[in-house]
Amino acid sequence: MEFDPLTLLTLKYHGRSIAVIREHCLNHESLLAIARRTFPSLQDVSAGDIVLVAPVPGSPHTEPVELLPETWTTVCHVVHTVTIALQSETKSTCGGTTVRGLPVLSETHLPWAETPLFRLPSIRRDPPVQSKAQQSDDVLQAISISFPEHPTSFDVSELGLLGKKVSRLYELIDPEEGYSASNSDLTFGNSFLNNDRTFFDYGIISGDTILLSLKPSRRFLCKKPVVYLYPPWSLADVTVELALASSWRFSAVHPPPRTTVPPGEPHTAQSLTWTVAAEPDGTLVDKTSGMQVSYLYWEAIATPQPVTPGASRATTPIADIDTFDPARPSLNPGDSVLLPTSKVTGYLDLALKALTLHTEARTSFITYWLPDMLKHEYVALRFVAQDAYERAAPMRIAPAPDVVTRVFMLFRGVPVGDLGLWEAARARTVGTGTDGARSWADVVGVDTLRAADSGLFRVLEWGGMEVQ
């Protein structure tokens, strides 16, 4: 069955482009209702403050125009894309500014001409002839970014963008999307784009679409989660069952588990079981191998899966960070802290102490990750909420412990040139003293009193992952 593009209408707002069913938007009221449902930040905005702008096919005006409520029913069947802006923004903004890549309208500046719905990248052998205005550094130029795995797209724009290096595109993309030159590829037509060349070199003009995709070799390694058991008295038989969500798989375990780790494909869920005798000092004797160990060890590899950009993420490290996908871990200025590597060990010691890691666990944690962190001048890090981590790697223990503490850190190096993008993360470590580091106990969800009570059966786990 042939697809008719006119069955869909594209709504654009603050850098997001979302296709909706046209039949659901045939009058002004229904269009506003769909817009508010699609973009939740519009829910409390009055109808009088919402401005609809679109180019009208066949109109003598080539530039987009504002659509009044009584106009929409006339043009709703021919308009392809509607850009949404707020009257309050247009009155307080001079010239064209950018909000997450989409120009904010002003009385003297309208957004760029419409990009047709589901437009594919053009394939050109030679750069097109462009007017001086198109090549000028004083002209707002826009590029639409789409993804091979799904129809979602968004736009980025800047004065004179097309004459700048391709690498500039990554600086204009919201850092929360997680794309960078090191982990992604840009393609136009049949060509991979070289980050050191300009968009003009590839014949790209304003309104063209570029495909953005993760490099297929990208992998995330979950390193050294170790599980300590501290019963209040000797336990002859403790069963620890650990399962993994389908987005990652075991790469190493010790001691050998009682049940065999299934070979599995990369996206097939896996599980394993240890049976041990446990002593109050943390000493474990594995029932399968007879080995005496201090903890149970495992590592896993995660393979990224396609996801829609712009998904909701936490904005502060003291808020509930309730999602964790090991195949696409979120680490951005809104959910982390930024530190020079010279201050990382002191910060971690305070944070880990607040998370109830004992002296040996804190020392092992810091010395294990320190060599990787010292490769960078600055490091951004965060700890994952325990309930979110539990969904990615559920663990069941019998007899049931009184308290379980699972600490999992995400970190990444931040180049000096990107520090401006991470100002919000750096600000969280300025002037907060020890309270900032200690706030992670609330984020992770640690019951600090019970976790320190030696009269209870306590379980402690720590591990981490470098996001590259």
TrEMBL record:
Residue stretches making up the Ubiquitin-like domain: 166-215
InterPro entries: Ubiquitin-like_dom, Ubiquitin-like_domsf
The protein's name: Ubiquitin-like domain-containing protein
Annotated source species: Lactarius akahatsu
